[in-house]
């Protein structure tokens, strides 16, 4: 902080050790926990950059990643959908696994398109995602849209535990924001139960 540093962004990617090993991250979830604890100890705000639907991801590892980083509660969390770019090892993996759709278009590399609710199912199918077992691309879009809202609910939950009156007053002053956080949490839990139960049955 004395040197002018105001934030450190950590490329954590996943909270699942098996996935981290598959993508050759060279880090573990234990190291993530210790690193974020260190940042908090020295008073340095941390931003966690996460990647959803990595090669090797399963429904279990996806939800483990989302829940894991939300529970660790860094000051900022950025969720990204994994997209393979040309001339990378990830692209080679995508070709081998048939991830690149036949109707692939370069326009669908634009990260800002992920959250557009107006995209049709046909357009969503054009994104070159690594789709985990039992998931569809449409469900990945839904998971992503919910994941980016979860830190808000997590902040409210921590607030109600540490300072319930102040948090309740804040929720009352911003009812739309609070309702959005509750709705995202509820939908996320429903999707999680549905996908994990489906995986268990399969």
Write up what this structure looks like.
This protein has 202 residues and is mainly alpha-helical. The protein contains 9 helices and 3 strands; from the N terminus they run βααβαβαααααα. The protein has a 3-stranded parallel β-sheet, with helices on one face. β2, α3 and β3 form a beta-alpha-beta unit. α7 crosses α8 and α7 crosses α9. The radius of gyration is 18 Å and the shape is globular. The protein starts with 7 loop residues before the first strand and ends with a helix. 26% of the residues are buried.
Instruction: Give the helix/strand class.
Output: mainly alpha
Q: From the alpha-carbon coordinates, what is the Rg to the nearest angstrom?
A: 18 Å
Model regions low in confidence, pLDDT < 50 over at least 5 residues? none
Largest sheet, in brief, is: 3 strands, parallel
Total strand segments: 3
* Helical amount: 40-55%
Mean pLDDT: 87
Reading side by side through the largest sheet, how are the strands ordered?
Answer: 1-2-3
Query: Shape from CA axes?
Result: globular
Strand content: 5-15%
Distance between the termini: 51 Å
Number of helices: 9
Note the run of SSEs as H and E: EHHEHEHHHHHH
């Amino acid at each position: 902080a004395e040197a002018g540093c105001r934030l450190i962004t950590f490329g954590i990617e996943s909270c699942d050790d098996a996935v981290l090993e598959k993508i050759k991250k060279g880090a573990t979830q234990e190291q993530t926990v210790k690193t974020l604890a260190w940042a908090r100890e020295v008073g340095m705000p941390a931003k966690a950059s996460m990647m959803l639907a990595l090669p090797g991801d399963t429904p279990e590892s996806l939800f483990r990643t989302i829940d894991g980083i939300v529970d660790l509660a860094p000051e900022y969390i950025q969720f990204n959908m994994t997209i393979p770019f040309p001339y990378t090892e990830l692209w080679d993996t995508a070709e081998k696994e048939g991830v690149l759709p036949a109707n692939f278009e370069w326009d669908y590399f634009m990260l800002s398109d992920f959250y557009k609710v107006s995209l049709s199912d046909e357009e969503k199918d054009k994104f070159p995602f690594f789709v985990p077992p039992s998931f569809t691309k449409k469900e990945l879009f839904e998971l992503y849209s919910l994941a980016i809202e979860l830190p808000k609910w997590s902040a409210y939950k921590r607030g109600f535990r540490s300072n319930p009156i102040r948090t309740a007053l804040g929720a009352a002053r911003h009812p739309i924001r609070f309702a959005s956080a509750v709705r995202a949490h509820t939908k996320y839990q429903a999707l999680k139960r549905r996908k994990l139960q489906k995986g268990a049955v399969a």
